[in-house]
Write a structure and sequence with these properties.
- This protein has 353 residues and is mainly beta.
- Helix content is 14%, strand content 34%.
- It is built from 4 helices and 19 strands.
- The two termini are 41 Å apart.
Length: 353
Amino acid sequence: GPPTRSFFLPESLANLAMRVLIGGGSGFVGRAVTRELRRRGCQVSWISRSRDSKHPADVPIVEWKELQAGRPLECDAVLNFAGANILNPLVRWERYKRQVEESRVGSNRLLVQAIERSPRDTRPGIFVHASGVGFYPPSSTLQYSDATDSSSSSNTALVVRWRAPRLANGIIVQYLVEWMRSADQTSPAACELSAAGNFSGNATVPHPPTVAQTVAVFDPFADRATNPALVRWVDGGLVTFETPQLEPYTIYRVVVTPATAIGWGTRASTSAPVCQRTGQAPPGAPRGLAVSTTEDPRRATVTWLRPDRINGVLQAYVVELCNVSALGRAGRVATTPSPTASTSAAVTTTVTT
């Protein structure tokens, strides 16, 4: 059925005469957006793999293969919600991951190419893409914007992508990928302007790698090569490298340096640093848990310190009471810490049995 929550659409899409083309229009989000746009008077068309009978008869269809064949776009806005489902229990994730990625990256690439080759007088002026609800930390109260700090989809790895330099000065034979824990953990943007940080690891990637292979990663703490990483070679010369065993919710600074047969280039050959934060993970255990009685025999005061390792944005605590004699749970209460509380500040709550 229709979603019960309202959602935001740009005011620029309130123009009653707008023609809007939607990729993934038959999905949950696409259908809701279609209803809202039609309510505003917009003309909506969908991009689909085929003109299936399951599609509404009153929605015009443009097939993806038509865009691949070079069809220009004649609309005012393009919205892309297309993408394979993240969960597919019938296929191993390592094989399916590429399909999930390509269904999002590939569809956007195709739409950008279609926009670029469209005549200026019919070229859409708005392009919106949404591919997942997990990009920002979950919250029932916060409102996010493009300026909001975000994190990686993995809490222990980052995916690094690059292409060979245009000026190779020879035959590229390998790359050195280096990553370091940023000295500034405020935001990825601040990281790019800060000092390099603490060296965390590196790996030598052959060029070109095979379609999928693993390479050894040097761990400075173990002083040896460990934690093999996955490297993939994608059509078009895109190299994908996945860093292993990083700390959750931590900003890392990554650089890539190419090498020819005579050796590595100078620092001038190193890529500009790219900073990204790994995803959130469950926090550690609270410290210094203490329970004290009050004048009311049915109440108790519980005090604790925040965990040493938060691993994300701490949203709430759940305090559980257990009746020991009955071996059952007598009650539960959740409290939210103050956003301004420091790591060393104690958290206190009163619970009723």
